[in-house]
Amino acid sequence: MSQLPAIDARQQDSITDQQAQFFLDNGLLLIRNLINSAELAALQQHTQVLVDRAVQGIPEKAPAGDWTDEHDVHYRRHSVTGKITPYRIEYVIDKTAANKALLGHPFILRSIEKIQGRNFLPTWDSMVFKRQGMGALIPWHRDGRPYDQSRLTIDPTAAAVNVDFYLDGSDMTNCLWAIPGSNRWPHDQALARIAQLNSSKEFSTDGAVPLPVQPGDVLFHSTLTLHGSPAAQSQLRRVVYYEFRPIEVEATIGPHTPQYIPLKQKVLLSCLRHRSKADYAADEKPFEYKPDASWAFPADDGQALGGYRFHHADYWRVA
Ligand code: NI
Question: How many Å apart are CA 46 and CA 67, to the nearest integer?
Answer without folding.
Answer: 24
